[in-house]
Amino acid sequence: EVQLVESGGGLVQPGGSLTISCSASGFTFSSYEMNWVRQAPGKALEWVSYIDRSASRMEYADSVKGRFTVSRDNAKNSLYLQMNSVTAEDTAFYYCARDPHSGSRFDSWGQGTLVTVSS
Amino acid sequence: EVVLTQSPATLSLSPGERATLSCRASQSVDIYLAWYQQKPGQAPRLLIYDASNRATGIPARFSGSGSGTDFTLTISSLQPEDFAVYYCQQRKYWPPLTFGGGTKVEIK
Predict the structure, then answer these.
(1) Could you tell me whether strands B62-67 and A3-7 are parallel, antiparallel, or unpaired per DSSP bridges?
(2) pLDDT per position as a tens digit, A14-50
(3) Which residues of A are less than 8 Å from B34 in CB distance?
(4) I need a labelling partner for A97 at 20 to 30 A (CA). Which of A20, A31, A117, B35 fits?
């Protein structure tokens, strides 16, 4: 069974940093591209970041470019999102999502981790 | 950036009725459009990809159609578990990958 489990969310102060993780199981992690998608409470889905199988290509939404960094460790079946200089607008549930090919579709999702930016 | 506009924002229907949801793209995305279902407190679930292909395990009452700028998700006969929010997503021109604003299907 495909499983994606996010962790590391919590309360962070404006201007602060936080790294969230996604642990994958039930499939060959290194064969899939991965994405982060977020959802502010009561709002629509927003794509945040993409990373290819070998971590040679990363893409970001303009809203997070230069502040967020996506990475992965295929040996540990794990995906990460380092979030720096956060603002209240970054408050959201963050989901990791599996991607068979270049944003074609998000065919499996984690349950999400909540990041709250507040003083 | 490709903007996806979903309509209506809310659809009020009874179980057993047919639901027709629309997604319009600001420019042609060919067939590169997916649909997701999200229930309260849950992660989204892939329903349809490449406009008309049902994802694994998705019931046949869900169907997708369209190409270019106009797409439709149809639920042929609403079941109680189908009341949820539905999102479309394009991957023709990216980054960024973009989602529509969602359509809520509620019980009338």
Answers:
(1) unpaired
(2) 999 999 999 999 999 999 999 999 999 999 999 999 9
(3) 104-106
(4) A117
